[in-house]
Write a structure and sequence with these properties.
By secondary structure, the protein is mostly helical. It is built from 10 helices and 3 strands. It has a 3-stranded parallel β-sheet, sandwiched between helices.
Length: 257
């Protein structure tokens, strides 16, 4: 997630972002505000095991591209992005296989996809995958099951409570039951599952569902930094979405990040 910074996974005291929030408030209010900020990313604290003092670190790690689709290709294929505009990786072959393709190779070596050890890769995202040929890329690299905005659009016809939160799709929470169903079916069929998920709410325009209560993090500079306050609330929303990990644990699965 290019839009998720290390010092927000979890929120960390002493970082530039933390100081920026505190400095926007009068000194008399800072203890109260600090307590509010400390509740922004509780799930990230559980995942990292470092409450308020640091996020997950990868030595030498950095965002592979300023374009999300190119970063998607790098994460799944281990190939550095092409130095060209747009997602040309969608229509050319990688110089090495991507994760779903490696899993398919394992399936072939073990005698086909019908064995109990078959790996079944799936891709989920609550927003469109048609921007700049991402849908072509996802299929090309071997995802067997792809669930994106198109399927949520069909579901929304019968569920008026579903709402789009931005110009490209829905909140991640609309995926929960579909991911749970995929896992349940996979376990019933003795499949080994590989699930990839693309997080989108922390992207512009930083909108969240109307049912999710927002917090005011910025003080006297709040109007000036309204977009930043919106961004911090998307971070809080995505952290709350982290409770989906408990769905995995409840189904008896292990997970990795």
């Amino acid at each position: 997630m290019e839009s998720m910074r290390e010092e927000l996974f979890p929120i960390q005291q002493g970082t530039d972002i933390h100081r920026f929030i505190m400095d926007s408030h009068e000194k008399s209010l800072r203890d109260e505000v600090n307590a509010r900020v400390s509740r922004m990313t509780p799930n990230a604290e559980k995942i990292t095991g470092k409450p308020g003092f640091g996020g997950i670190n990868v030595i030498g790690g950095l965002t592979s591209s300023s374009v999300s689709t190119k970063s998607l290709a790098t994460a799944h294929c281990g190939a550095w992005p092409m130095a060209v505009n747009m997602f040309e990786e969608a229509v050319v072959e990688s110089y090495q296989p991507c994760i779903p393709q490696v899993l398919e190779l394992f399936n072939t070596l073990k005698g086909g996809n019908n064995t109990k050890d078959a790996k079944y890769p799936a891709f989920f995202q609550a927003v469109t995958d048609t921007y700049d040929r991402q849908d072509i890329f996802d299929s090309k690299i071997g995802f067997k099951y792809i669930f994106t905005k198109g399927k949520l659009d069909k579901e929304a016809h019968d569920k008026p409570e579903m709402e789009k939160i931005n110009y490209f799709g829905y909140p991640e929470t609309d995926l929960k039951e579909h991911i749970k169903k995929f896992i349940t079916n996979g376990l019933a069929n003795n499949q080994r599952l590989f699930i990839s998920h693309f997080t989108s709410t922390t992207y512009h325009p930083w909108d969240i569902p109307t049912w999710f209560e927002t917090e005011k993090y910025m003080g006297k500079e709040g109007k000036r930094h309204q977009d930043f306050n919106k961004y911090l609330n998307t971070v809080r929303f995505i952290d709350a979405w982290g409770h989906w990990v408990t769905t995995f644990l409840g189904l008896g699965l292990s997970f990795g990040f």
